[in-house]
Every structure is written in C-alpha cells, then in structure tokens.
Amino acid sequence: MLREISLPAPAKLNLFLHILGRRADGYHQLQTLFQFLDYADELTFSLRDDGVIQLHDALPGVAHDDNLIVKAAKMLQQASGSIRGADIRIHKRLPMGGGIGGGSSNAATTLLGLNLIWQCQFDLDQLASLGLQLGADVPVFVRGHAAFAEGVGEQLTPVTLDEPWFVVAVPQVHVSTKEIFCDERLTRNTPAITLAAAQTQEGHNDCLPVVELRYPEIRNALMQLNKFASAKLTGTGACCFTSFPSQQEADKVSRSLEGGLQHFVAKGSNISMLHKALQSLHQ
C-alpha cells in the first residue's frame, strides 16, 4: 500500500469569462474557457490509520476545518466509508484570491491523492461530483483537461488549445469572488456562444469593468501588461495575464515589468500537471 504521495495542485486561467444571466438560486449562468499552467502548489499526503485528518500548514485567516483541503478530505472519507486518515502538508505558491484556482485546485488534488492512498477506487465522475459540492471550479481540476465550461462552470467539454507561454501578474490584493458576483454593476446578459467560437479565444471577461473600479492595483497591473500585449483578467482576479508564443518572449517581458509588480512566467497546458503526475505513477 502506498503510504505517502506528493502531488501538484496547478493553477488555471480563464481565457475568457462570459456571464449569461443569474439563476433564481443566485448562481450565475456562465461560459468560460479553462487552461492549466505548469505552475502549482504541492501537497503531500501521508497515510494515518486512526482516521484523523490533519492539515499541518495553516493559511492566514482560514480555520483548519474551513480549508477546502480539509473539507475535501472529510467529504471523501464520508462518501467512501474509509476508516483511514491523513497528515497533509502544502507548499503554497499560488496566491489566495488570485483567480487562478488555488483553493479549488488544492481540493481536487486532495480528492485524487487520498482516493489513491486510501484505495477508495472512485472514478473521475464520482470525484468530480464530490468536488462540485465544494466549488464550481473543482471539477475541471479533477478531470484535468482544458475545457469549455458552461452552466455554473460544471458542464465541461474538453478542448485542445495552443499552449503558449504566459506572463501572469499578481497584484497584492485579495478579490472576493462573491462580492464581484453580487455587485449590481456586473453585466449579466452576454449572449451564449458556440464551442467553435469559444476556441478562437476572442471572448472577454464580464467581471473586468467591476474589478477595475474596485481595485486600482489590478487596473495598474493591466496597464503595465498592455504595454507588451493584450492583457486579460482571469476569473474575478486579482491575477492578470498576457500570452506569448515562446518562453524567450515571455521572459523578456518579465524582465521589463516595472514598479515591483509581482508576477511569474508559466507555460499553458491542456493536460494538468496533476494528471501527468498520476499517469507517471501508474507507468
């Protein structure tokens, strides 16, 4: 039995985000295009035989049992009837409130990692269904393939996109997704587009005008990136990005950014680092 495993929890980008309307339950109908980055947190899961789930690396301002990692572990434990537990450690690289999926990705990696060491034998459909209860973005990380997403983000159609290099700026603000989606200035009437149109990546981000109004730091980051290429906001932010066909071009822009703007360079990937790591385990 495998008693310890380390797995990545990769970032994602929303290459566009259209909001089509608001449902009666308050959730929003949307369309978006997800692609992963080769930039990730790393989670280590160590098997415990006493059923205790212990996350050893607390996040600022997040109680232990409120962390999505712990919630995901307890949900899988209950759903599978497993009597095992785990010590969980995280090496954090992805910013909180950055719109690149840190919490959702952590939850998905937890579901897949513990499914393996607890020998639950749940398939991806079962794990994605559990993940959806934790957040609309969790299923795309569970499935691990770039996707066109509809509904509240849970209806996924796998797509194969170009895999450019990205410069991702990280403004030092924490954006509340809930607050952005509750803002009355947010437009909620973008017409639906087809899968074929989505893959041209010519869409926009309906959250951008509201986010720029609320967070001047993000507006400043977009202005800096726009000097080099068309800049976009991922999700509700705070992270913004531009894409380039080569690492050389991305690195050149990285060296040119001014004013201490925190950022990183990463390659786009249609298959997530998590699934690549899991595949290598089975070879």
UniProtKB/TrEMBL annotation:
EC number: 2.7.1.148
Name of a matching Pfam family: GHMP_kinases_N
Pathway: Isoprenoid biosynthesis; isopentenyl diphosphate biosynthesis via DXP pathway; isopentenyl diphosphate from 1-deoxy-D-xylulose 5-phosphate: step 3/6
Keyword Nucleotide-binding: yes
Alphabetized InterPro entries for the sequence: GHMP_kinase_C_dom, GHMP_kinase_C_sf, GHMP_kinase_N_dom, IspE, Ribosomal_Su5_D2-typ_SF, Ribsml_uS5_D2-typ_fold_subgr
Residues engaged in binding ATP: 95-105
Keywords assigned: ATP-binding, Isoprene biosynthesis, Kinase, Nucleotide-binding, Transferase
GO terms, biological process: isopentenyl diphosphate biosynthetic process, methylerythritol 4-phosphate pathway; terpenoid biosynthetic process
Entry superkingdom: Bacteria
Reaction(s) catalysed (UniProt annotation): 4-CDP-2-C-methyl-D-erythritol + ATP = 4-CDP-2-C-methyl-D-erythritol 2-phosphate + ADP + H(+)
Residue ranges occupied by any GHMP kinase N-terminal domain in the UniProt entry: 67-144
Catalytic residues as annotated in Swiss-Prot or TrEMBL: 12, 137
UniProt GO MF annotations: 4-(cytidine 5'-diphospho)-2-C-methyl-D-erythritol kinase activity; ATP binding
Domain GHMP kinase C-terminal: 196-257
Family assignment from sequence similarity: Belongs to the GHMP kinase family. IspE subfamily.
HAMAP family with a match to the protein in the record: IspE
Primary role: Catalyzes the phosphorylation of the position 2 hydroxy group of 4-diphosphocytidyl-2C-methyl-D-erythritol.
Name recorded for this polypeptide: 4-diphosphocytidyl-2-C-methyl-D-erythritol kinase
